[in-house]
Design brief:
Layout: E1 2-7, H1 14-29, E2 33-38, H2 48-53, H3 62-71, E3 76-77
Helix pairs in contact: 1-3
Length: 78
């Protein structure tokens, strides 16, 4: 299955901002063709200093999820 995950949530809501990356990991590991599309405030999450500061409730920090998405070769469009 081909999946496109779109998000505009930025660091102001760390839990929702992290969802696209954690979901992309799950889809990629299940063998799906997944891509992430960021717009608006979500684009700032691609800055290292911002990604390092985003820690969602009940999930791994965004920096860890982002590293995994990159390692899984999931395309991220900004």
């Amino acid at each position: 299955m081909k999946v496109l995950i779109k998000s505009a949530w930025g660091s102001g809501d760390p839990t929702q901002a992290s969802f696209p990356f954690h979901h992309a990991i799950a889809f990629a590991e299940a063998g799906h063709d997944v891509q992430v599309f960021l717009l608006g405030e979500a684009v700032s999450l691609m800055r290292t200093v911002v990604a390092n500061a985003v820690v969602p409730v009940g999930w791994a920090p965004l920096s860890e999820a982002l590293a995994k998405v990159i390692a899984d070769r999931v395309p991220i469009h900004v």
